[in-house]
Amino acid sequence: METNDSLWQVPKPRKSVVKWLLDSDPAIRWQVMRDIDEEPDKIVAAQRSLVATEGWGARLLGLRGDEGH
User: Fold this and answer.
1) Dihedral sign, Cα of residue 25, residue 28, residue 31, residue 36
2) Which residues are CB-neighbours of 12 under 8 A, at least 6 positions away?
């Protein structure tokens, strides 16, 4: 039985979509850099570290109470 591998391949997003995602929050950016752009681990780690201090991640962490909840 012959299979058609192209049916199972996920198309790459358009460059405009990737650019839009890279221009967004660090919580999104590092994943795009890792999964779509295939950036080196060191660059991805640097972007991922921004999640705690910028954007949505920082806002969420800022809502923690004194007990960490």
Assistant:
1) negative
2) 36
